[in-house]
What we know:
With 300 residues, this protein is α/β, with parallel strands linked by helices. The protein has helices at 36-46, 61-66, 71-79, 83-90, 110-116, 118-121, 142-153, 213-219, 231-238, 259-270, 277-291; strands at 5-9, 30-31, 34-35, 51-56, 98-103, 126-129, 133-137, 156-162, 172-180, 183-191, 202-210, 244-248, 251-255.
Amino acid sequence: MRIRKAVFPVAGLGTRFLPATKASAKEMLPVVDKPLIQYAVQEAISAGAQELIFITGRSKNSIMDHFDKAYELEAELQGRGKEKLLAAVQDIVPPGVTCIFIRQAEALGLGHAVLCAWPAVGDEDFYVILADDLIDGRLQPALAQMHRVYQQYGTSVLAVQRVPKDEVSSYGIVDTQPVGPGLSEIRRMVEKPKPEDAPSNLAVVGRYILTPRIFKLLERTQRGAGGEIQLTDAISAMLQEQTVLAYEFEGTRYDCGSKLGYLRANVEYGLKHPELADEFRAYLEALTADWKPGAKKARA
């Protein structure tokens, strides 16, 4: 049982990062030296994806360009003997992996974006990855962890994370029945409930393994919250027909759809970067020392 196709809904406007995203896709915001969408693509490939399906919008040409071959740049790097940089550019899309770009004509929500992928996905189980959710898997990428669960149970799997009670109103929250350590069967989903109405603090985050049945359900899903077609509504309908599992992945999630989450990701990925870690850590230690009461000011 292998999943070959991964869907990346990347048509959102990224208004929380304006003006940085006025002319550039929010998914192209870099974490240290790679854009968010590249981290998502690498995670999908690590879980066996060979066809990458991007659901794009009018302002997303930079994503297409990033995954296209850059002949002039490669020739320049090769001519200057910059082999390490050349390898980094050429490895963005490994051999045997193809990219498909589909335009979402109207911004009608995540559910509609997934529905737009139907012609490319066909009658196959598939991944959905939201690049805003950058997940640093501990020993294995989060999607590869989910694929192990899928291989065992052969059904849809959603990534979930426990969130503080006062934050449940920002997520789709699931009511579950335990199946095993970190794994449970979803009984119902509630979209952005008030804390007092939430059935748990297990929040669905941006990783999904879905069966193609979701497309038929999305096709007849009415517009919900915000006047958009909600993926959560279609998954709720699927619960009446199929088992859907919730998996608590091992790793750290950074909500890069928020400025604070994005800054945290840059700091923590910078502290692990093979070229920057030691110097960056020394800088942060000196910076934080300057903030301590009574500490001397740093020299200009």
